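Appendix C reproduces, verbatim, an entry submitted by the partner laboratory led by Prof. M.T., so that reviewers can inspect both the input and the predicted structure.
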Amino acid sequence: MPLPILLRSLLLGCFLTLAACSGGSDGDGDNGTPRVCQTATTQACTCTDGAQGAQTCAQDTWGSCVCDGTPVCQTGATQGCVCTNGASGSQTCSSEQWGTCACADPPPTNKTHGDLCTAPNFDCGTDSQLTCVVDSQGDEQGICRVACQNNLSCTGNDQSWDAGDTHCCDVENGTSACFAPFVCN
């Protein structure tokens, strides 16, 4: 095959490969199509010579890799990014390269008495009257318990009554929660 035809075939093949690989799914865009990236964010990419380049997101799709030798980002800069669940996160530039997308925990859900609560925020829900109780300081998880002022608080609450937690016990710094009688000290 003559060289010009071979060269055109290779270039066309590269273009088609890039076009086919520009899709993906990390969530939904405004029109319901899969979102690959968050518009105006930048990330590192690998150039054909193996050097690092940069590509920018436009209309929820990554653009081509720019390989002109300019840094991908300025060290210390922070930008938004899209998490795998479609939520927004943030990433920070280190050594002129974007780090991984830091994704916040999903919004808290309303938990009920007896549900697990985990580090780092030990959240039992903002609308509940629950307290996260751990066995020992430094534990990574605890159990959501009904907060109480006296034993009537526990026996008058269906969640704690159904769990058999009918006694109000002091758990820490004046915080009290409903426990089963055999757990109280």
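The chain has a mean pLDDT of 74. Additional entries are available on request from the coordinating office.
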